[in-house]
Design brief:
The protein is of the alpha+beta class. It has a single domain, classed as Pleckstrin-homology domain (PH domain)/Phosphotyrosine-binding domain (PTB) (PH-domain like, Roll), CATH 2.30.29. It has one helix at 60-74; strands at residues 25-26, 33-40, 49-56. Strands 1-2-3 form a three-stranded antiparallel β-sheet, with helices on one face.
């Protein structure tokens, strides 16, 4: 699996689509991390597999802001231009 690390730019990049069915759940024992399952496109569209993903933030406030923005993007209402929500 491809390592996606954008710490220097403070950006998050995903190799999958956001769908309404995706469930972001808190990582066990942490209020600053989320986990979810999605179709992973990191190896190209010909080799798609379902993978469990996780993301951890500096604190719970940032983690909640991320989750709120993801939920907003899932319904196609991105209002913050600093986060681009692409849909197909």
């Amino acid at each position: 699996m491809q390592n996606i690390n954008r710490v220097v730019l403070a950006q998050v990049c995903a190799n999958h689509y956001l769908t309404a069915a995706m469930k972001f759940t808190p990582h066990v024992g942490s209020d600053n991390a989320w986990t979810w399952v999605a179709a992973d496109f990191s190896d190209g569209e010909s080799d798609v597999s379902m993978e469990k993903f996780a993301i951890r933030f500096k604190n719970g406030e940032i983690a909640q802001a991320f989750k709120d923005k993801i939920e907003e993007c899932k319904v196609g209402r991105a209002s913050d231009l600093s986060l681009h929500c692409y849909s197909t």
